[in-house]
Amino acid sequence: MALPSFESLQSPSDVVCLVDDDADYRLLVEIVFKRYMPSYSLRLFTSGQNFLDALKKQPHYRSLPVVMMSADASHSEITSFYEAGAISYLSKQADVNRLKDTLLLACQHANKRG
Asked: Most CB atoms within 10 A, among 8, 76, 80, 83?
């Protein structure tokens, strides 16, 4: 699996990744992110658990904060997200405040890396 390149970013500490397969929900996340966290760079990916596993095996990306999102993940899938290195899991919902709070948490994790 090809991993993304973040070389164009000024600092690796300004990147947060979010993995979700729904284009409409990714757009909602992007809007919330740009409004409340404009100094960070959001990278959106669609491939889920396999992507997270591949990403976290790479030393350069190991500390990158990743938020996993799903409408119907089982308890064991959610546990595997955390075990693979995700910093948070969000069930898809229309609660924009919860979404914003989780993205702010991801930015705090990004700051700790920098």
From this structure: 80
pTM: 0.65
CB 85 within 8 A of CB 33: no
| Token reading at 76 | 């064991």
| Spatial separation of the C-alpha atoms in residues 27 and 9, rounded to whole Å | 21
Q: How does residue 9 score in pLDDT terms, banded at 50, 70 and 90?
A: very low
Is the pLDDT at 75 greater than 90? The verdict is: yes
How long is the chain? 114
Nearest CA to 65 out of 75, 74, 55, 73 is that of 55
Q: Which two tokens stand for residue 92?
A: 């898809």
CA distance 7 to 36: 24
